[in-house]
Design a protein that fits this description.
It is built from 14 helices and three strands. With about 325 residues, it is mostly helical. The protein has three domains: about 55 residues, Single Sheet (N-terminal domain of TfIIb), CATH 2.20.25.10; about 100 residues, Orthogonal Bundle (Cyclin A, domain 1); about 100 residues, Orthogonal Bundle (Cyclin A, domain 1), CATH 1.10.472.10. Strand 1 and strand 2 form a beta hairpin. Helix 8 packs antiparallel against helix 9, helix 10 packs across helix 12 and helix 11 crosses helix 12.
């Protein structure tokens, strides 16, 4: 049947029934089935597809509702339109997380600060203990120990110890304190106590003396060492006085120019001890002064060569036993 014949049939049946009656255009049969796969009516008699995109009203309503729900869901996801309760819950969770992270960070910072302070206190205590042990071993006055401890506290407070050896720092603090209190000690003496190389103490001394306000520290001379060396060698007062006079005469004549104060002091004591008949061996003096025996004897050769001018009547008058005949030939 042509499409024009199908239309009157539909029009005639519409007023009488709420149901739509469709006939197959080929066999005029009404045994039609809705094919949901293709949305067409299929004639079960001749297997002919009847109608193009004929949709049942119930199916259309269902699909329309499904599409509307999908659109609403997509709109909510894109615009972030959530209920006030959900929004409040989400904001509360974010705030709680931020607060928790903030507390954790503060706790870590506090623990780190406490660890740094503890390490600083331990370093300070260890350094002061080393200074005390060093000063006791050197048998220096308490004022020197107090000055050295004050220097070390300044080093810690100013963070001047970073990358530096603690042994070198403590030795240098003691060295500076001895210089300032006019009880000097040599680098070698400090090296023997701390086992720190002399070069390290020398570099640390240059690094700290200006920063600690000790730039005006007096330079050590052989006169500063003479009394202590003579006392350690158990020499009488006359030998000590004779050595001091020899040192002054040698300095005026530049007999030992260029020699270190330790070498000058050792050579003058060696010559004075023999001059007043209280001889001390060069090896013993080298052990006390911290300088080699060869260095002392080489300096003594210069003194002996200039003995006619050095051994003035004033020097010989110090001790009745003083005589040039007592001097060993180098």
């Amino acid at each position: 049947m042509p499409a024009t014949e199908l239309a009157p049939t539909l029009q005639q049946q519409q007023p009488q029934s709420h149901h739509l009656t469709v006939l197959c255009p080929d066999c005029h049969g009404s045994n039609l089935v809705h094919d949901f796969g293709s949305d067409n009516l299929l004639c079960m008699n001749c297997k002919v597809s009847v109608g193009d995109r004929l949709i049942d009203s119930r199916t259309a309503d269902w699909r329309q509702r499904r599409a509307q729900q999908t659109d609403d869901s997509d709109s909510s996801a894109n615009t972030g339109d959530v209920s006030p309760i959900a929004r409040a819950a989400s904001s509360g969770a974010v705030a709680a997380t931020k607060a928790k992270l903030l507390r954790a960070k503060k706790s870590r910072n506090t623990a780190k600060t406490r660890a740094v302070e503890q390490r600083s206190e331990e370093t300070l205590e260890r350094g002061l203990s080393q200074i005390g042990a060093m000063c006791r071993a050197m048998d220096v006055p308490r004022a020197i120990e107090a000055a050295a401890c004050e220097y070390y506290q300044q080093v810690e407070a100013g963070s001047l110890h970073r990358g530096k050896s603690q042994d070198a720092i403590t030795a240098t603090c003691v060295f500076l304190a001895c210089r300032q209190q006019a009880v000097p000690r040599t680098f070698k003496e400090l090296c023997a106590l701390t086992r720190v190389p002399r070069k390290d103490i020398g570099r640390m001394f240059k690094h700290l003396k200006d920063k600690l306000g000790a730039a005006d520290t007096a330079v050590m001379s052989s006169d500063d060492l003479m009394t202590r060396y003579c006392a350690n060698l158990s020499l009488l007062e006359t030998a000590q006085e004779c050595a001091i006079l020899l040192n002054r005469m040698a300095r005026e004549r530049d007999t030992l120019a260029g020699k270190s104060p330790v070498s000058v002091a050792g050579a003058c004591i060696y010559m004075a001890s023999h001059l007043v008949a209280q001889p001390r061996d060069a090896r013993v003096i080298s052990h006390v002064a911290g300088v080699s025996e060869v260095t002392i004897k080489n300096s003594y050769k210069l003194l002996y060569a200039d003995r006619a001018l050095l051994l003035s009547p004033q020097v010989l008058a110090v001790d009745p036993a003083a005589s040039t005949a007592n001097l060993p030939i180098p």
